[in-house]
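Data card: per-record layout.
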Amino acid sequence: MTRLLTFADLIDGLTRLAGKLAAFMLLALVLLVGGNTLGRYALGQSSIALQELEWHLLLPVALIGISVLMRENGHVRVDMVYELLGRKTQAALDCFSMLVGVLVAVLFIRYSTGFVDSAWSIDEGSPDPGGLPARWALKGLMPVCFALMALQCLANAIRHLAILTGHTPATPEVPS
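The structure for this 176-residue chain is written out next.
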C-alpha cells in the first residue's frame, strides 16, 4: 500500500503542476477577454484570431480544473447525506465514485481519440478567415486532460482504499 500511496503522491504532484499552468492560462484568458472587449468597444476593432484564442485557453483551463477539483476534494456530492455517514462508509463511497470517475475519463479518452485523429488527419484549422490554425492541437488536449482526470481519480481511489484497509489515519489531510 505504501508504494500505491507514493504513486498517488506523484499523481498529485502532476495535477498540482498542471493546475499552476491552468492558473497562468486563466490569467492570460482574463487579460485577453478584457483586451478583446476594449478593442471591440473602445477602439472599434476586433481580431478573429484573438477571439478564437479565448477558446484555445478556456478548454485546457476547464479540463485541467476538473482534475484540480478532484485533487482538492472540491467535486460535487450531497454533503447533507454524506456527513451523516461513518468514515469507512464515506471512504467506500468515495472510492467507488473515484473508480467510476476513472471509467468516465477512459470513455472520454476512447471516444475523443477518433475526433482528434480526424482533426489531425485534415490538419484542421479555423474555418474563419484570420482564425487560428492547428485546431487539431486544441482537440488533442481533450484525451490528455481526461487522462490526467483518470489518474487523479485513481490517486484518490488509492487514498480511500488505504483508509478502508487501515493504512492511513481516519482523517487524512487533503493534499496541498
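Known properties of this structure: DSSP finds five helices and no strands in the chain. The chain has a mean pLDDT of 89.

See the next section for split statistics.
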